Amino acid sequence: MDSDAQLVEWAVVGSDIGPLLLAATGEGLVSLVFHADGTVRAGALRRLASRLGPVRLVESASGRLAEPIRRLDAYFAGGLREFGLPLDWSLTTGFNRQVLRELASGVPYGAVVGYGELAARVGQPGAAQAVGAAMGANPLPVVVPCHRVVERDGRIGGFGGGLETKRRLLALEGVLPQPLF
Description:
The chain has helices at about 40-50, 65-75, 95-105, 115-120, 130-135, 165-170; strands at about 5-15, 20-25, 30-35, 55-60, 115, 150. By secondary structure, it is of the alpha/beta class. The protein has a 4-stranded mixed beta sheet, covered by helices on one side. The protein has a two-stranded parallel ribbon with strand order 5-6. Strand 1 and strand 2 form a beta hairpin. Helix 3 (about 95-105) packs across helix 5 (about 130-135). The relative contact order is 0.14.
């Protein structure tokens, strides 16, 4: 193992939307992956290792991940509206990073924004499709709330975690009604 390898702690935790894989570096939370069963988990860990350079992956729900796990639990229980966590943005660059940072700071709990409006906020009013691509590449969904980005006509649009997951997150935040069943 490379002695200069970056330590990345990871854990899979249960949530109201299924198992989530969380990963953190010394900078902060770097990744959140939906539906983190065995196959998804293995692929996500391989991608993390390849994208972050020399890393030492350590499974641990304490240390760097204790506070993100606590805050996610509070969010799903309806008691947290802003995560306020240190984030490691190293898995995103350029336009995507700019869009995701604007989303994280400018679209609060219980609100939604259109793809085109978010593009305009970052000075690229014609880049609604590029905003959609940035949402699909978001390494920190839920915490960087790409579920709050919707289509201009009010449809909820796509979502990397699946439309049912997006509906559940929007219902949790009061944007959509809670499902009956």
